[in-house]
Amino acid sequence: MEVHQIHRVHSILSSTHRQASRVALTFDFPFYGHQVRQITIATGGFIFTGDITHRMLTATQYIAPLMANFDPSYSKYSTVRYLDNGDTFVVQWDKVRLKDRETEGAFTFQTVLCRNGTIVFNYKDVPLPVEKINSTEHPVKVGLSDAFIALLSSPQSSDAKQKTIYEYHRVEIDTTKIVNNSAFEFTPLPTCLQHTTCKQCLQSNITSGCGWCNTLQRCSDGIDRYRQEWMDHNCFEEAKGKCDDYAHGGPESSNSPFRLPSPSIAPSPVARPASPMTEGEEEVPEHTAIIAGVVAALILLVFLTLLAVYYINTHPTVAPPFYLMQRRGNNYWPSMKFRNQGCHSSYAEVDLGGYEKENFIEAEQC
């Protein structure tokens, strides 16, 4: 551990309860493969990483060393402070106490965000076992979470769209391991999003399940924050192609994963101009059969496409589980879907405050 002098104490967060404030980082922090430049610090022992700030920050898209009902306003010695040295961003909840359980003792813990994506949770003082913290008034969570927002048809109107948030991955820590002077480190795994070319996307041996959407010039498995855009541009279908398909006027110019027929190819019987019929009784059945077959094939294709679109929209987490974060010890957690259900704490966003209550912060170097 290296001791850093801390200079930024958020005066409002240090004097209020259930408040959150957005802070800009001096570097791009890769979180689940997404480059995050702004985060939201909450009094309740966690960081919100989503782009859209709302009152239910505790639901998902969080980095939570110890999410609980902390009330920094209880004491002038309780602070929420942070430090950004260009390579690491540290947030420390210093001597904070649980709302209506202040006599249980003061908690001091922090999270460290490293430029390379590594996340560290450090715990200095944990006076109460985490499993004994009441979650009735406020969720109690320790770990990481990310989600995507999908636009789905509203039950009230088929024309209206409603935003639904889906948690596609969560990492949870065994809270019995959280004691005084303990620490956890999370190391990011490779993701499809880090590939910038089709060849890297489809041929990399460090990732799997990746597809290249030439329309968006993006590599993805379809399960990340950009899922809605991936769906809107039909990337699930386009990603079935190969890199060779995107050259020489292929999908790049037609937004399709398939090559267009060469002009030298003769037109199909349906498109061929009609010619004078010399033996009508023999020609009519042949053309009728061909046309009927083509129409039937088109109807079947449209039906299967509509069925696929309906299935994707009603099962947005149908893709293979997305494993991104790895905890020390090589443990993995499966993906899961989250709909906005149940009760979560309501948070209000505040502006950046001043700097008070000087103290120090201990941060593990990345």
TrEMBL record:
Membrane topology qualifier: Single-pass type I membrane protein
Signal peptide location: none
Domain of life the protein comes from: Eukaryota
Keyword Lipid biosynthesis assigned: no
Transmembrane segments: 289-312
Primary localization: membrane
Gene Ontology, cellular component aspect: membrane
Pfam families named in the record: PSI (PF01437)
Keywords from the named record: Glycoprotein, Membrane, Signal, Transmembrane, Transmembrane helix
UniProt entry tagged with the keyword Signal: yes
Subcellular compartments: Membrane
Region (Disordered): 247-282
Coiled-coil features, chain-numbered ranges: none
The family this protein is said to belong to: Belongs to the plexin family.
Annotated protein name in UniProt: Plexin domain containig 1
